[in-house]
């Protein structure tokens, strides 16, 4: 095993830009060319967060052409799921850099550090919440980013690696990401999933269009071997409806559950209320309010990641990045959400923890979409997301770092 000796002073956040860049390349190319596991690069002077971040980037290259649990390869999955994710101020969807392994590698070596530098300059000027230098911002952006996309990408890499190494033991569990299969298996196991309409097919016909046009027929996946999940549209509970507008979509709570590499105990990483926006079909476009599930059960001030989904000239909108990241009041309903106590936190946690235990006991991390509906005030699970997104939820950074490191180490063996 190779052990690098490293000057501890260089591990601090006051490193010069050149020193930060050198450290990034040093670790990146070590992992890339050695083919060794995460613990091969050992030094007491480097934060584990730096190691898990850079190692996960290298794993993206290693796994790029390998089978993925929901695609022919990890590269194909990246192209499919990053086509609408646009780095602010670039107009460029990230899927372009996943066209093949070599373009992805070029991005990680040249473009990512450049974007981290540009972002650091921008942050040093416009981020009034923190008084950091460009050097400090660059260290964080390049070596241990903590924003929503970085954790999403990290989670995706962990489960991609896990599914590749443990496929024969876990393929049935990973198949639960199929929304239809999840509903069928969940119902069998008495998990409170959203019910399916028991009809073979439905016809949707426009009220005015003639000549055989304006007609769509959908086959029910559960009954008629179709591709479509046919369900009624559920409404928010009275509690949630009072927080959002009357025409807001079903607004769910995203709960992330996980299990450590050496334990079967299910833990909660984060819990976020996604308060849907005016006249939206889903709560993907929402204001995210963290729920303090450990103690107070109260909502924090709201945030959004919408600036990562702005195409064209809208990607240059700076208001959504900083001025719009403090929603104590919901911008559509004008209700004060910050400080409100969520009444059924424990019930929601018990629901998803039980579902994780019996549906996917071996999978490292899962995101659950929990709906609190007006159907007898009932909780329902809409779906699970294995390549899951924290949606700006608060989490214990040290615990999450150790979680990632331990899983990488376990899978390397």
TrEMBL record:
Stored Pfam families: ATPgrasp_ST
Keyword Transmembrane found: yes
Annotated protein name in UniProt: Alpha-L-glutamate ligase-related protein ATP-grasp domain-containing protein
InterPro entries from the UniProt entry: RimK-rel_E_lig_ATP-grasp (IPR039523)
Entry keywords, A to Z: Membrane, Transmembrane, Transmembrane helix
Domain of life of the organism encoding this protein: Eukaryota
Segments traversing the membrane: 15-33, 45-64, 85-115
Domain Alpha-L-glutamate ligase-related protein ATP-grasp: 228-386
Organism from which the protein derives: Adineta steineri
């Amino acid at each position: 095993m190779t052990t690098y000796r490293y000057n501890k002073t260089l591990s601090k956040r006051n490193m010069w830009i050149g020193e930060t860049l050198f450290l990034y390349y040093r670790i990146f190319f070590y992992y890339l060319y050695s083919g060794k596991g995460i613990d091969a690069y050992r030094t007491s002077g480097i934060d584990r967060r730096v190691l898990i971040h850079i190692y996960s980037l290298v794993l993206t290259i290693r796994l790029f052409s390998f089978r993925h649990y929901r695609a022919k390869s990890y590269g194909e999955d990246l192209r499919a799921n990053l086509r609408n994710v646009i780095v602010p101020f670039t107009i460029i969807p990230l899927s372009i850099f996943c066209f093949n392994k070599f373009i992805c590698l070029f991005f990680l070596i040249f473009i990512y550090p450049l974007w981290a530098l540009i972002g650091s300059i921008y942050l040093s000027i416009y981020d009034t919440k923190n008084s950091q230098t460009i050097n400090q911002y660059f260290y964080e952006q390049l070596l241990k980013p903590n924003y929503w996309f970085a954790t999403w990408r990290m989670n995706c890499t962990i489960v991609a690696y896990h599914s590749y190494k443990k496929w024969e033991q876990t393929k049935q569990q990973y198949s639960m990401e199929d929304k239809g299969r999840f509903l069928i298996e969940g119902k069998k196991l008495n998990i409170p999933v959203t019910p399916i309409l028991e009809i073979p097919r439905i016809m949707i016909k426009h009220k005015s269009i003639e000549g055989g046009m304006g007609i769509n027929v959908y086959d029910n996946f559960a009954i008629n071997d179709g591709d479509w999940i046919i369900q009624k549209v559920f409404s928010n509970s009275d509690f949630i409806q009072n927080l959002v507008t009357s025409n807001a979509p079903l607004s769910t709570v995203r709960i992330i559950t996980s299990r450590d590499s050496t334990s079967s105990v299910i833990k909660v990483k984060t819990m976020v209320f996604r308060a849907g926006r005016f006249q939206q079909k889903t709560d993907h476009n929402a204001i995210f309010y963290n729920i303090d599930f450990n103690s107070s059960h109260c909502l924090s001030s709201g945030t959004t990641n919408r600036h990562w989904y702005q195409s064209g000239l809208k990607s240059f909108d700076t208001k959504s990045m900083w001025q719009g990241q403090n929603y104590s009041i919901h911008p559509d309903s004008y209700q004060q959400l910050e400080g409100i106590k969520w009444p059924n936190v424990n019930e929601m946690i018990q629901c998803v923890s039980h579902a994780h235990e019996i549906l996917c006991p071996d999978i490292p991390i899962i995101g659950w979409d929990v709906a609190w509906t007006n159907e007898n005030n009932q909780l329902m699970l809409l779906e699970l997301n294995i390549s899951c997104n924290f949606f700006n939820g608060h989490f214990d950074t040290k615990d999450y770092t150790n979680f990632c490191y331990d899983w990488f180490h376990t899978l390397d063996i």
